Amino acid sequence: xxxxxxxxxxxxxxxxxxxxxxxxxxxxxxxxxxxxxxxxxxxxxxxxxxxxxxxxxxxxxxxxxxxxxxxxxxxxxxxxxxxxxxxxxxxxxxxxxxxxxxxxxxxxxxxxxxxxxxxxxxxxxx
Length: 126
Known about the structure:
Layout: E1 4-7, E2 10-13, E3 18-24, E4 33-39, E5 46-51, E6 58-60, E7 68-73, E8 78-83, E9 92-99, E10 115-116, E11 120-125
Parallel strand pairs: 2-11
Antiparallel strand pairs: 1-3, 3-8, 4-5, 4-9, 5-6, 7-8, 9-10, 9-11
């Protein structure tokens, strides 16, 4: 069983920055691919960013490319999402997810992930 706990959400003005953090339990964290997804009201949960188990490979949704950066610290069992130049359309609940047996280096589909955090709200005001 893997537990994921997100933190760092909040209210920010458009153009501002936030950093989300996800703390994971489990001794095999360095073998997990990790991802961030988000869900806005009335919309489906969508892929935001993902990182390979080693941290050497990343992937981003087109909507956040160049503004968001995903990183991980395998010594601390954490994965972060640095969000810059935030826009009102980035408003959503953000979820951390773990793919404990990754079949691809950087999974981007919801179904590939096995464990999810409870989510953290990010609100960007215009």
